[in-house]
Amino acid sequence: MATASPLLLDREFLKTLEQVTLLCRTNLSGAVGPEHRSRTRGPGMEFADYRRYSFGDDPRSLDWSAYLRFGKLFLKIYETEQHIPVRILLDRSESMGFGDEGESKFLYAQRLAATFAYLALLHLDTTAVIPFGDRLAKPLVVSGGRDRLWPVLQFLSEQSCGGGTDMFGAVKEFMSSFSSRGIAILISDFFDEQGCERAVEMLRSGGHDFVLVQIHSAEEQHPSAAGELILEDAETGAQRTVECSPQSTALYERRFQEFSARLRRLAVRNGGRYARAVTNLAYQEFVLRSLRSGQVLA
Amino acid sequence: MNWLALTPVEVAAVWTALAATALWLYLHHRRPRHQRVSTLRFWASVQPISQPRRRKLREPLAYLAQALFLLLLVLALANPRWGPGFEGRSVALVLDTSIWSQARPAGEPPWIDRERAEALRLLDSLPYGDRVLLLRAEPDAPPVLPFTTDRSALRRAILAAQPSSVAPDIPRALEMGRAALGGARRGLLAYVGPGLVDEEQARGLDQFRAEMESPGSSGAQPQFLMRLVGDAASIQNRGITRLSLRRDAAQPDRWRLLTQLKNYGNQKADVTLAFSVNGQSIGQRKLTLAPQSLSNAEDEFTWDQGGILQAQITPSDALEADDRAAVTIPTFRSVHVAVFAGGSSPFAADLLSVLSSDPYVQASVLPQELSAGVSPDIGIYQGANPSRTDFNSIWFVNGPSTAGSRPVRVTGWNPQHPVTRWVRTHDISVRNPATLKGEPGDAVLAYTEGDPPAPLILARERDGRRILIIGFNPHDSNMPQESAFPLLMAGSIEWMTHSVDEAADSLSTGEVDQPGPATKILAPSGREVPFARKGAEVHWLATETGMYKIAGTGGETSVPVNPPALPEQRVQLTAAEAAEVEGEPLPPATWDMWRWLVLLAIAALWLEWWLYYTAREKQRTLEATETPGEPAQSEIDVELEEREKSIFRSSNLVGR
Question: Domain A11-29+84-293 falls in which CATH fold?
Answer without folding.
Answer: Rossmann fold (3.40.50)
